[in-house]
Design goal:
The longest helix is centred in the middle third of the chain and has 28 residues. Strand 1 and strand 2 form a beta hairpin. The protein is mainly α. Among the domains are: 91 residues, no CATH class; 72 residues, no CATH class. It is built from 22 helices and two strands. It has a two-stranded antiparallel ribbon.
Length: 526
């Protein structure tokens, strides 16, 4: 028989649990309500299927899933109460998680971040895919349809997909051993497979260049929605779900995650997604993940390298951060990462006859293309109206402010301490990444919008800004400042979506230092 002390402790723990979590006990739903719930799910699935079939107006397909819930919200008071209770409970779970009192609230991230962003991103017509991203979806199509990576099946498309007007290959394609393949890493292909495979099963026309571009847009929206959800869950672990939500709004409306990641399958999307996956494991466990978490981190770091070789800097810094705190865990992460890289090395050897992969990797390591510690490119990366981090992410000033007053800010009552050394990791990673990309001969990043090459570290800036956001949310003037930063960031990126301002890159020569002719002031010729 258990002692009275044991029973009393059990009762006390149950009381404490009931204070932390207030479960929502729903009354038994009527058959009609249950039928409408299931019908909503079916209609949403049909809408997603219409989206993936790539027919006319397919981009509005996902919005079809909102039709029945919207009608019920307008007409049914009981349904409004039920939805309100569900939203309140989901937010309570997010707040409890932020205080370190519950499991990862995946449902909250899905409801408040992933679904809204995906629906809005797919519905508009903006795209930002270029030659860098062009091979990704065709490679996924070839893999699903024919079981190989040879893109020769797309030779006959009109307009041409693989070649320029003079008949030579576009720089994003090359021929190796009789196969036409991409000149870029294949790390983004798994993301494209998530949309290409069901689209093929649903009978989409995958021999249409327009449809291939559309599927790239849908895939990019999915990647951005996933990355933003991971960011929200990571930032929330610093003690404030509200601050994490505002920081996520910064990224979703006023950063490279809105344009570069959300409008095309750039390599940066994979880098930030896998980096945030590794960071979430670290933050959710307070810097002490078990061996399963360490294996997941190693796998995520390996996928970062598969997406973009320059991500090796972030991978190395993350590994060093882990090793300094726990050599044993660092060994597990390293072994897992090396094992996860083996399939990519084998793939590169089979396709390119080189363990480094495509031709661009072999040529871009040339010392002639790199010049470190140049002042003017560094200033351009930070402040130029064409590519500046602080121009296209105006809220990043909060990250700088937080770093400057970090010894004092870290003791703010609004915050909960994250993993040991997280702020130093973010600050060092951002600094060294800026040094790296400013050393590249084409520091503006070619045909792009905003600070594309800096996109890899934008989530780290968001994490650094989150403590400052938590403090500002407690003050009326601070709320006004945050609203202003959200508005400015959105207005800077909106022209890329609504007005195809990325076509500014066609102007020759590109003047990255002209405020009067900045990309966000671009107007297409009438």
């Amino acid at each position: 028989m258990p002692s009275k002390d044991v029973a009393r402790r059990a009762d006390t723990s149950r009381d404490r649990l009931s204070v932390r979590y207030i479960p929502v006990v729903e009354p038994r739903r009527r058959p009609v309500a249950s039928f409408l719930d299931w019908l909503s799910v079916v209609v949403a699935a049909v809408g997603l299927a219409l989206c993936l079939r790539t027919r006319s107006n397919a981009r509005f397909g996902p919005l079809l899933g909102l039709a029945i819930p919207a009608g019920r919200l307008i007409l049914n008071a009981a349904y409004r109460r039920r939805v309100g209770a569900w939203v309140a409970e989901s937010w309570r779970r997010a707040e409890a998680y932020a205080r370190g009192e519950g499991p990862i609230p995946w449902r909250s991230a899905l409801a408040f971040v992933a679904i809204p962003f995906f629906l809005l991103d797919v519905a508009h017509h903006g795209v930002l895919g270029t030659f860098d991203t062009r091979p990704v979806v065709p490679t996924a199509v070839s893999l699903v349809r024919d079981g190989d990576f040879d893109l020769r099946e797309f030779e006959g498309l009109n307009p041409p997909l693989l070649r320029k007007r003079d008949g030579s290959f576009c720089y994003c394609f090359q021929e190796v051993d009789g196969r036409i393949v991409s000149t870029f890493q294949a790390g983004m292909v798994p993301f494209a497979l998530v949309t290409v495979a069901p689209a093929w099963l649903l009978g989409a026309d995958l021999d249409s260049r327009k449809n291939l571009q559309y599927l790239e847009k849908v895939s990019a929206a999915m990647v951005a929605a996933l990355a933003l959800s991971l960011f929200f869950l990571t930032a929330a672990r610093l003690g404030s779900a509200s601050a994490a939500a505002v920081a996520t709004l910064f990224l979703a409306t006023g950063s490279g995650l809105f344009t570069t990641v959300g409008l095309g399958l750039w390599q940066h999307g994979g880098v930030v997604t896998w980096l945030l996956a590794a960071l979430l494991v670290e933050f959710a466990s307070r810097g002490e993940p078990g061996w399963r978490g360490s294996l997941l981190q190693g796998f995520a770091l390996a996928q970062m390298l598969a997406c973009r070789p320059t991500a090796g800097l972030l991978v190395g810094l993350f590994g060093l951060w882990v090793i300094v705190r726990s050599p044993r865990r660092g060994l597990i992460v390293g072994i897992a990462g090396a094992a996860a890289l083996v399939p990519w090395v084998v793939y590169y050897e089979l396709i390119y006859r080189s363990h480094l992969g495509p031709a661009t990797v072999n040529t871009n390591v040339s010392a002639e293309l790199w010049s470190f510690f140049r002042l003017w490119p560094t200033l351009g990366i930070l402040f130029s109206p064409g590519r500046g981090i602080f121009v296209y992410q105006p809220w990043a000033v909060l990250a700088v402010a937080a770093a400057l007053v970090w010894p004092r800010l870290r003791r703010a009552p609004e915050l909960v301490a994250g993993p040991k050394g997280w702020a130093a990791f973010c600050l060092i990673a951002v600094t060294l990444h800026v040094v790296l990309i400013s050393a590249w001969w084409d520091w503006p990043g070619g045909y792009s919008y905003g600070s594309r090459l800096a996109t890899d570290v934008v989530p780290l800036l968001g994490l650094l800004a989150t403590p400052a956001v938590a403090v500002l949310l407690k003050r009326r003037a601070g709320v006004g400042l945050l609203a202003g930063l959200v508005a400015v960031g959105f207005l800077v990126h909106l022209p890329c979506v609504a007005n195809e301002a990325h076509r500014w890159n066609h102007d020759k020569p590109r003047n990255h230092w002209s405020w009067s002719r900045a990309p966000f002031f671009y107007r297409p010729p009438s």
